Amino acid sequence: MNVNQQAHMTSPYRQPQPTLQGYAQPGYGGPPTQYTPYNSPNPGYQQGPAPAGYSPYSSLSSKAFPATLASDLSCNSSSPLDLGPVRPTPNSVGPPMSAPQGYSQFTQGDVQNGPPTMSSQPHRPPVSQSYLPGSQPAYQQYGVPPTNMQQMTNQMSGMHVSGPPPAVSGYAPHSSNSQTSVSFSGTPSFPPHSVSSQQNSPAASLTHGQPPSQSPFPGAPPPVSQPQYSSVPPASSQPHYPGAQPPPASQGQFPVGPPSPSQASPFHTPLSNFVPHAGPGVQPVQAPPHSQYLSGPPLPRQPMQGPPLSQQNHVAPGMQRLPGQAAPPGQGQGVQPQQNGAFGQMSRPQPGYGGSYPGPQNYGAQPPPPAAPPQKRLDPDSIPSPIQVIEDDQANRSSEPFTTEVRGQAPPLVTTNFQVKDQGNASPSYIRCTAYNFPCTSDMAKQSQVPLAAVIKPLATLPLDEAPPYIVDHGESGPIRCNRCKAYMCPFMQFIEGGRRFQCGFCSCVTEVPPHYFQHLDHTGKRVDCYDRPELSMGTCEFTATVDYCKNNKIPQPPAFIFLIDVSYNAVKSGLVDLICAELKTLLDYLPRESSEEDSCIRVGFVTYNKVLHFYNVKSSLAQPQMMVVSDVADMFVPLLDGFLVDVNESRAVINSLLDQIPEMFADTRETETVFAPVIQAGLEALKAADCAGKLFIFHSSLPIAEAPGKLKNREDKKLVGTDKEKTLFQPQTSFFGNLAKECVAQGCCVDLFLFPNQYVDVATLGVVPSQTGGSVYKYTYFQVPSDGDRFLNDLRRDVQKQVGFDAVMRVRTSTGIRATDFFGAFYMSNTTDVELAGLDCDKAVTVEFRHDDKLSEESGALMQCAVLYTSCSGQRRLRVHNLSVNCCTQLADLYRNCDTDTLINFFAKYACRSILSSPTKTVRDTLINQSAHILSCYRKNCASPSSAGQLILPECMKLLPVYLNCVLKSDMLQPSADISLDDRAYLRQLVTSMDVAESHVFFYPRLLPLQKLDVEGDSLPTAVRASEERLSKGGLYLLENGLHLFLWVGANVQQELLQSVFNTPSFGQIDPSMTNLPVLNNPYSQRLRAIIESFRVQRPRYMKLMVVKQDDKLELIFKHFLVEDKSASGGASYVDFLCHMHKEIRQLLS
Ligand SMILES: [Zn+2]
């Protein structure tokens, strides 16, 4: 037993790169049945008898098994041996370890014995509104905790809202429908969500998908359940959102606010500026909490509909007030046109904000907007600004390190630079949650609809100033674990009986402390060696695993890398083959290795292919490499064992000779056809033969149409976009690759795919194996060495060099009351609990959703432990364990005070990635809108002070939810622009699926930096500006990045001096838009700008090629696509318009 493993503490994971990123591919091309999404709206992923809606318990029984089984993760580790040299075992050795109990991991009996109560957490600033007494949910919890699984299941499945009916009649989804149709947090179920609560009628909530004949708008005469963004096929009768309104629909919504709203009131969202009364923030109205929404029929709505009233939204009779000082707070003004002027001025017309709404493509068919009276538009400066929020967080939270000893602390935003000190909970670099205060009950969770999820990046690279995880070696006995649930020793285990036993924080089971691990407790009950042991004091640590944790109980062989190069006509002609071979000669010197090792243990092998495969013998004893051709691709085998996988150093000369010869050998090829599946099979068979895990690097150029297994046909059909069959475009065209992926996972064979297509290659199908093996897909369309060579080489270098674990299995354990129910990412699952990754690299993130299966308690909070068992690049078996505790609350306001919107968006985006495999994109968009509207309306209803319905009130930490959600909705994945290819969409889908929070954030809301006033001396970056055309000045230069693309936009009136400094030309006209890097000039401005570009590139997992965009040039169209606050060419709403739409949705739910 090693007490303090300082000596082992060098991390194998330390990498120079920043912490951001994780790309990977989505693992969802595959068989849906592997998942147990119990609330997924995707029929494709529904399992078993799960009802369409909320059925959190349908898969409950699986909980009984999780830790069981033969999984490596659950091996019992109870060697009594004490091998540790360091700390002598005290003589008061505990009693011998009790025999492992047959456990049922999920018992209720121990429920009382929670983990030690942790110090309670300092709350974030209060929510924006003091919520009203009595506004808490009226639902009653199911009574006494059931005593066994069956009982519990029964109880839950039969559960109906047992408490008094909610006071608010207008909140349909949570009352009458809650049982069957409302999905409760995460994955919304379609039907219930589109409910407009107008009627509180179950029937109404189920009409989703039916073309309603009535106007969805509030105030429309007959109540209809259909909100504007319904999933209804372009039902013509449906007046969709903005379009139905007089064009600048947004106007009415909020009085034009004063500038810089976000500062107006720290606890009010800027939208409080829209409050149509004078007071800052919201004036409490002396009325029963819900009266404003209850009073009579949908009051607030009526005004909305009245076409001619330009200010409809503000003038609910008796309820609403005029904006601004004009109206005394609390006084209804009657029906009266709003006077926008009360708050600031009408904004000037702005380029990005046409008054009219996004086209039908967006919201379905819309009647042409009626002629609108002249209106004032909502001032974009008065709505919540992402930049302001990001800057405020950076200013307030970057100076002090974020220490993790306190439970349930929300970390700074992912955009903020801050240092983390691990003092008992895992760093946000590894785990970020959507909420840090989980609702105590599933009813509360259902009511709020806030998804409870964590985005986990197990092997994340930490910033250089943070210590990598400690490696703990318990010798032959392996890590100490709970007898019952098999959780690993961590700060959540409480030692009792003088240190002889410990009680598990997850399942409450009491386990004997093995003699060699015994230690006395101090007067507070803490082990005296607590701070000497990383596993007892830190949120993250890594254990060396014993042979029990190895496949077939055998210590693994070091992994292998196999390079498989397409040498068909296209690949050769584009210069690709030359480029790869030249690069590999040096790149092979940089294979990943443990920091303690001089050379990498990874062996390498080489294959080239077109219609047939060529294997190479590069044994060190050969003078020249030997080629062996396999032309029978129907039944792939490896024609040589000895000499195929070799040590780079030993075989250096032969390898170099081979890499020199390959381009020559195929220089004159006429072969245009390729195979693909046999290429993967070849790599897989080679790894099998060598009995090791490894990674395949496949460089591929075309649709595999040659006769072979997995042969594909061109099925590109753009006409399907926007139809119910659109989903088929994202599904693989054959199940062949899904089966192949399964075999690869079993062998620990991870596949990275580099694509160089000149036309459709069916990324949706070719990407299946990479996405289910934890691999990555890279795509270089119309690849040309001069323009794309840099990007490809940088990606390849990073991909080959990055830290990666093989044959990984990840399991997330949770404390009693919640459990991980759904997983999103690039992996494979053969059961409901184990996430299997043939390869897991430092960039890959897995998003996990949690649901209640019992009540949680405020006292014990909710705990999660993510354990990843993997083989390191040197062949060592390791266990990395991340622990995180969050608070639990009985008040909704506490939930809304501690959310992380960036993580929420990551979850929603991944949810969308999966859903488009089985549902029309419009349905997916509607679902996200509906769920978000529910989240925000629940806040409004239960947490915000009463105020007029014309006012949009958002929780402080979710005030950016609308703007970010809109970015997801209008992304090419969900609402493609006309020029994006189907392959590109499939590609994006795969990328998003394994993004971490930092990546998804910048991907959906790009960073736009003005460069006019660059600080050329210091390191500071200019303050970003909002992604909207109106923020661009003709005299300026701007840099925009989203993690995949990097643009330098040049205004037409940029000063000559500046042009000279950057481009070495005084004339705008002479700037060459085809450059992909700036000229290297010896002036401070140029140097600083290039340094910034470089720093952006280093920060992201994929190399971004620079595109120079001149104002009014044709490339500008592409650039504008990333100005996400503006209306998009494909019909995506502008931020302002979308916010108004969300407001209407919320009002509908409230009324
Ligand atoms: Zn346990």
Main attributes of the structure:
alpha/beta; eight-stranded mixed beta sheet; seven-stranded mixed beta sheet; 28 strands; 13% strand; disordered N terminus
Describe it for me?
The protein contains 29 helices and 28 strands. By secondary structure, it is of the alpha/beta class. The strands form six sheets. Strands 11, 12, 13, 14, 15, 16, 17 and 18 form an eight-stranded mixed β-sheet that branches. Strands 4, 6, 10, 19, 21, 23 and 24 form a seven-stranded mixed β-sheet that branches. Strands 3-5-22-20 form a four-stranded antiparallel β-sheet, with helices on one face. Helix 26 (1056-1063) crosses helix 27. Bound molecules: zinc ion (ZN). The site of zinc ion has 8 residues, from loops.
Layout of SSEs?
Elements (H helix, E strand, L loop, with lengths): L148 H9 L32 H4 L8 H4 L35 H4 L5 H4 L37 H4 L6 H5 L54 H4 L22 H12 L4 E2 L16 E2 L9 E3 L3 E3 L2 H7 L4 E4 L13 E3 L21 E3 L4 E3 L6 E3 L21 H4 L2 E5 L15 E7 L2 H5 L2 H12 L15 E7 L3 E5 L8 E5 L15 E2 L4 H14 L11 H14 L3 E7 L35 H12 L1 E7 L7 H4 L1 H5 L4 E3 L5 H17 L2 E11 L3 E7 L10 E7 L4 E7 L9 E10 L5 E13 L2 H6 L3 H15 L5 H22 L18 H9 L12 H11 L4 H8 L2 E4 L26 E5 L4 E5 L5 H8 L20 H16 L6 E5 L5 H5 L14 H16 L1
Parallel strand pairs: 1-2, 4-24, 6-10, 11-12, 11-16, 16-17, 17-18, 27-28
Antiparallel strand pairs: 3-5, 5-22, 7-8, 8-9, 10-24, 12-13, 12-15, 13-14, 19-21, 19-23, 20-22, 23-24, 25-26, 26-27
Helix pairs in contact: 13-14, 13-19, 15-16, 21-23, 21-25, 22-23, 22-29, 26-27
Zinc ion binds next to loops.
